[in-house]
Amino acid sequence: MRPRLSTMPPLTKPAPRLKPHETLILRDQGGFRSHPGAGWKVVECLFTDRRLIFWQLRKILLEIPLGSITDLRLGTFYYVLRKRHALGVCFHPGGTLRPRMIWFIVNGASSWKARLFQMALLKVDEALIETLAERLDDSCRAILMHLWEQGHARIADLAEVCGTDNHMDVLMHIRDAINPVAVKTMGCPILSFERKRVDPASGETVLFSWWLAGSPEKRAPSPERLLDLFDEGGHYQVIIDVKGVGRSDLHVGVEGRELTVASRHPASPWVERFELPEKVVFDAHRVNLKNTLLEICLRKAEDGYEA
Asked: How far is CA 9 from CA 6, 17, 122, 259, in A?
C-alpha cells in the first residue's frame, strides 16, 4: 500500500512586511556583521526602494533608510572557510551625527553595490544629462532626454520617441549605447527596468517601465528676466536684467544662433539661452554692464561667413 502524500503546503521563509507602496528590488541570503569586532550572522538581506533590511528569525536586526547612506565600499573577508566579496555601507543612524559602517555578504555584491548607488547616492542633474547626451547619437539622445523629463516610460513610448516600430531597437540603444556610456562616465547605468515601482511624484504604482536612475535634481525655473532685442542693421543689441551679480560673475557665449548668458555667482547661479534671428560674429561682440542691465552687442555674420 502506497503511503499517502502530505497535502501540507511547503514552508516559506518569513520576511518583514513591506510598507505601503514599498517595492522589493533585491533579496538574498547572506552574512551580516554589525561592527569590525563582531562575528558573521546568517541573515536574509532585503533591498527595497526605501531601505536596506537585515532579517533573522522573524526579527529585523537592522534597517537602513536609503536616504541615510553616505558611502558604499567593496571588501574581501573570510566567510564559511573561504574568501568572499562583501559590501560595506556607511550611514548616519537616526538622531546621531557620527557615521556607522556595517558589512554584509551576498551573491553578486558588486551588483548590489551598483543598484544601491543608483538608488541612494546617485544625483542626476542637468549637467550630467548634457554630458551623456553629447556622447550619444540622435535616437539614444531622444530616449535619454525623454526619461530626464518624464522620469519613467514604457518601451512603446520610447520606441515612438526615437522613431522606430521595433522594441528591440530601443533595448539595443539602452543596452549597447546609453548604459555603457553612463558606466564609463559615472560608474553605473543611468537607465533601469522595473517590473513595479512607485512614482514618488504622483504616488502611483508604475508597472513594467524604464526609469531614470538616481535622484533627479532639475534646475529650478529661473525668474522671468527683462529682455530686449534691437536690430541695429549691422548688429544686434541685447539687453538683459542681471540683478545680484557682477560683470566678473557673468559668462556670455554664442553657438550658431543661440546666445547663452550664465551667472557663476555662488549665491545666484543661473543660465539663460536665447535664439537670435540670425547668426552673429561672436569674436566681434561687446559687453557692458550698467547697474543691473547687461548690454551685449553682436555683429551680424556676413553671407557665407561661419560665426
From this structure: 8, 21, 43, 70
Provide CB contacts within 8 A for 207, sequence distance 6+.
195, 196
Q: Which residue in this structure is represented by grid cell 530626464?
A: 148
Query: In whole angstroms, how large is the CA radius of gyration of the chain?
Result: 27
Listed residue (150, 145, 154) closest to 209, CA to CA: 154
d(CA 86, CA 103): 6
Contact 114, 188 (CB under 8 A): yes
Cα distance between residue 111 and residue 245, in whole Å: 45
What does the angle CA 215 – CA 216 – CA 219 come to, to the nearest 5 degrees? 145
CA angle, residues 101, 104, 107, in degrees to nearest 5: 150
Query: How many whole angstroms separate alpha carbon 245 and alpha carbon 241?
Result: 10
Rounded Cα–Cα distance for residues 220 and 201 (Å): 16
Angle at 121 between CA 116 and CA 125, to 5 degrees: 130
Query: Could you read off the pLDDT tens digit of each residue along the chain, which spans 307 residues?
Result: 454 544 444 445 567 888 887 888 899 999 999 887 888 999 999 999 889 999 988 889 999 999 899 999 999 998 888 899 999 999 988 766 688 999 999 999 988 998 899 888 888 888 888 889 889 998 999 999 899 888 899 999 999 988 888 999 999 999 999 999 998 988 888 998 988 888 877 778 888 999 998 866 554 444 556 678 888 888 888 888 887 778 877 888 888 788 888 877 655 667 787 788 888 887 767 888 887 888 888 888 875 444 4
Are the C-beta atoms of 179 and 186 separated by less than 8 Å? no
